[in-house]
Amino acid sequence: MDWEIRPAGLTDLLLRLQRDYPGTVLVITESGAAFDDTPDENGFVHDDDRTSYLAAHLNAVADAQAKGADVRGYFAWSLMDNFEWGHGYDKRFGLVRVDYDTQERTPKQSALWYRDAISAWRAAQ
């Protein structure tokens, strides 16, 4: 979508919010980006760009936490491809691909990576 992607900006924002509003608990409720998702012959989407986006932004949150930001949640936008007010069905943000003709849902590479990242985080706690 030609939006600037700058994960360090998320770290900076979280630290500024913590500094300006001490004691505030922070939760990132929507974090995602649309990329050109092209399914293979089985409907699977190898979405390296989205996977990298998620990894970089989770690292940005971890950096902010390490520097004192009280971040207690991070939610990817969006679970599934859906209708976007500004772009209709043209842009796909989801971790799960929706075939709009059949309504079949197929987890993308990013969904599998996100699942594994959450599992690894939980195991480390």
Description of the molecule:
The protein contains 3 helices and 4 strands; from the N terminus they run αβαβββα. It has 125 residues and is an alpha+beta fold. Strand 1, helix 2 and strand 2 (71-76) form a beta-alpha-beta unit. Helix 1 packs parallel to helix 2 and helix 2 packs parallel to helix 3.
Q: Whole-number average pLDDT?
A: 96
Number of strands: 4
Major β-sheet strand ordering? 1-2
In DSSP terms (H or I, runs of 4 or more residues), the helix count works out at 3
DSSP strand content:
5-15%
Residue share in helix: 25-40%
Radius of gyration: 16 Å
Query: Main β-sheet: number of strands, strand sense, barrel status?
Result: 2 strands, parallel
Find the structural class using helix and strand composition: alpha+beta
N- and C-termini, Cα separation: 36 Å
Question: How would the global form be characterised?
Answer: globular
Order of helices and strands: HEHEEEH
Detail the poorly predicted runs.
none
Structural key phrases:
two-stranded parallel sheet; 125 residues; alpha+beta; two-stranded antiparallel sheet; globular
Can you lay out the helices and strands and say which pair or pack?
Elements: H1 7-20, E1 26-31, H2 48-66, E2 71-76, E3 96-98, E4 105-107, H3 109-124
Parallel strand pairs: 1-2
Antiparallel strand pairs: 3-4
Helix pairs in contact: 1-2, 2-3
In short:
A two-stranded parallel sheet has the order 1-2. Strands 3-4 form a two-stranded antiparallel sheet.
